[in-house]
Amino acid sequence: METVEEVLQTIGRTIGIPDLTLGSLLRVAVIVLVGWLVIRLLMRMVDRMLDRSRSLAAIKPYVHTAFHIFLWVLLALMLAGTLDVDVTSIIAMLSVAGLAVSMALQNTLSNLAGGLVLLVTKPFGPGDYVEADGVSGTVAAVNMSYTIFHTPDNKEIFVPNSQLSAAKIINYNRLGRRRMDLKFTASYSAPTARVRAAIQEVLAATPGILDDPAPAVYLSEYQASSIEYLVRLWTSSDDYWTVYYALIEDVRESFSRHGVEMTYDHLNVHIVGK
């Protein structure tokens, strides 16, 4: 009848571990127990660090999982070395497998890397109105692979994070307020004071315009058929378009009340009789 040692030797030769003994199994058990305790301790430390970092809060689950897997793989390699298994060949196989997977999932991994960049740097967040990579809309969600935009015409657009992380991003909400520059034209026959008074009347009556800095009206250019006036004001990001369309409509009505003609390009032809 075979002894335990002989049985272990037979099993070891079958699975490629020639020196499988009770002693080696005991060492493996001790290493597994100690490794498990060390992994738990390290994971607690990592979780505390992630909890203290606001910039990593969005990717905490992914960092936690990746580090946890790394520690267990490291422990498995240590166990293989203890059992006199050729660790070099295992690492080589893992490297080849990792290279094959990374090439097959190149676009996916690129989007994941872009998602990590966006989640850490936070150039925008849900609710921000953003212009990036040819898309303008409100950010609905930032996932690991895609960022979801809702456009003003009620479209939902999924943009790969790899494109966004490399694109120029304009965030219209981050600073809380926006400057608005509007241009209006009036005829040369309209006095500047009257035109300015007509525009300022509308500015004073339009809600949503900030008092600091105060709105201003400038005569900006003498054109071929009209004089151009620049209106510069500040408003909150949320009120921007409401104020914009209100001014566009109300200034025309104010010009009409004050007798200011809104001219357009035209050509005066004088016929001189002989």
List the helices and strands and how they pair.
Blueprint: H1 4-15, H2 22-52, H3 60-82, H4 87-104, H5 106-121, E1 129-132, E2 135-142, E3 146-150, E4 156-160, H6 161-165, E5 169-171, E6 177-186, H7 192-205, E7 216-222, E8 227-236, H8 240-258
Describe the 3D structure.
The protein has 274 residues and is α+β, with helices and mostly antiparallel strands. The protein has eight helices and eight strands. The protein has three domains: 101 residues, Helix Hairpins (Orthogonal Bundle); 50 residues, SH3 type barrels (Roll); 82 residues, Alpha-Beta Plaits, CATH 3.30.70. Strand 3 and strand 4 form a beta hairpin. Helix 2 runs antiparallel to helix 3. The longest helix is centred in the N-terminal third of the chain and has 31 residues.
